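Most newcomers find our protein records easier to grasp once they have seen one. A learned vocabulary of local backbone shapes supplies the integers on the structure line. An example says more than a description, so a record of this kind follows:
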Amino acid sequence: MSTLGTFQNDIDTLPDLELERYERIFKIYEASKDGKDFYMYNILNKLEFPDDISADLLDAYKVQSRMSLTNVSYEIYGNIESWWILFLLNKVNIPKLFYVEPGITLRFIKPEQLTLIYNQITRSLIYNGRHF
């Protein structure tokens, strides 16, 4: 394993993560002690979307009732794993970290663009601990 870590899907002894999983975008570091392997995510890294993300990639969703981000993710994407994209795109407008109140309009990546975005994030460069 390199000193910079390895993506979980590249480690044979760990299960592969689905494309939508937040953990998939971070490399894992390995440490061994007493014959056991330990794997750790670098939780100090963070991901941010640029402020000037192309409008062609985005759409809007108006929340009708108080919902968790996992429920909104399911409504938009058909899975609960993409909640983190909604949070990152809307964190300025979401006063609570996990619930969205009725009447809030959320920006979201269009479902047909998600694979492109996931792959770009995974291949992106890291500068000062941030993905760009």
Notes: Residues 6-46+124-131 form one domain. The mean pLDDT is 82.
